[in-house]
Amino acid sequence: MKAVIPVAGVGTRLRPHTHTVPKALLQVAGKPILGHIIDTVASLQVDEIILVVGYMREKIEDYVSRNYSLPIRAVVQEEPKGLGHAVYVTRESVADGEPLLVILGDTIFDLDFSPIVKGGGNLIGVREIEDPRRFGVVKSQGTRIEGFVEKPERPPSNLAIVGLYYFTDGGPLFSALDEVVRRNIRTRGEYQLTDALQLMLERGHEMTCLHIEGWFDCGNRETLLETNRYLLDRVGKPADLETAIVVPPVSIDPAATVENSIVGPYASVAAGAVIRNSIVRNSIVGERATVESTSLEGSLIGDNAVVRDVCRRLNVGDSSEVA
Ligand code: G1P
Q1: Best substitution site from 13, 14, 83, 108 to test ligand 1's pocket, by max atoms within 8 Å of Cβ?
Q2: Do 200 and 249 reside in the same domain of the chain?
Q3: Are residues 168 and 78 located together in one domain of the fold?
Q4: Are 273 and 208 found together in one domain?
Q5: CB of 150 within 8 A of CB of 186?
Q6: What DSSP string describes 42-88?
């Protein structure tokens, strides 16, 4: 089986952080979003992970080569032409007949992958949500899918496509994507994966809904912090620090310095960060960031940022200074 993880997107909703870091590398619960995804995928029987890179591809390639020795290959999507196009550019890396898993690079899943690994046919991850208009939506009869539509004004159901797709054979998907690109079928200006899936249905390929409750979006500040809280709830209590009070759950990198401070609950502190005389709750503090004499709640602090003498909610990009 091959796994394709598209991570080429710009992540505009997470600015200012995505001015300097690609979205997939933003920290959540002690490691980048992409790290969580690769760790999950690596526990499956995957022969190779194919990352679709574009925006700040060097940073992604650097992170992966420093942290993983798995068979991982990067394929470049030169222009952002949509998710369908992102998957299409991997067509030469997946042989005909080979099973294929596609997981979007900005989403963390908590699920039992066994129905997938057991080969339960073509599966599309969905979740029932109140208003699915900003997602792809499936129309289904029981779990059998009868149609796909991308970000519909009037959704045919409440089943949103969550960003996990499994195909027993990648061939029919690439053939449908090829037609989407060749005939220049665009929806909202882009080559959509949902349009290729619709074509597959029309060509007689069956697809089934895989209901996923453990779906953690990391698309904006609120959902990133929510995902941080969820993941931290599952980590053990950290060792006590000499001059700090740690209120679990937290993730404090061993290479961070925390002095005279209260950290947690729900704080993630990355390597090289320095926290002194501060309170840090429900926040993510980036690598080598400095937080001094500050009280943080619901905040995202970028890598190398410096925050001193501040008591409020912050969304500070990398290398900024607030004092
Ligand atoms: C993409 C897909 C959409 C899916 C969503 C899940 O949209 O096109 O069908 O529901 O991911 O996150 P995007 O979020 O890239 O606009």
Answers
A1: 83
A2: no
A3: yes
A4: no
A5: no
A6: HTS--SEEEEEE-TTHHHHHHHHHHH--S-EEEEE-SS---HHHHHH
pTM score, two decimals?
Answer: 0.90
Q: Which residues line ligand 1 (CB under 6 A)?
A: 83, 104, 107, 135-136, 150, 160-163, 192-194
| Nearest atom, ligand 1, residue 135 CA | 10
CA 79 to chain centre: 20
**Which domain CATH number covers 16?**
3.90.550.10
In a domain, 231, yes or no: no
- Among protein residues, the one with the nearest Cα to ligand 1's atom 14 is 135
Domain holding 102, by residue range, is 2-217
> pLDDT digits over 261-287, tens only?
999 999 999 999 999 999 999 999 999
Same domain as 306, residue 209:
no
Cα 163 to ligand 1 centroid, rounded to whole Å = 6
Percent of the chain predicted with pLDDT > 90: 85
Average pLDDT score over the chain: 93
CATH code for position 291: 2.160.10.10
- Probe residue for ligand 1, chosen from 5, 135, 190, 224 as the CB with the greatest number of ligand atoms within 8 Å: 135
> Do 143 and 286 lie in a common domain?
no
Nearest ligand 1 atom, CA 132: 10
Cα 55 from chain centre: 15
Q: Read off the tokens for 112.
A: 């039992």
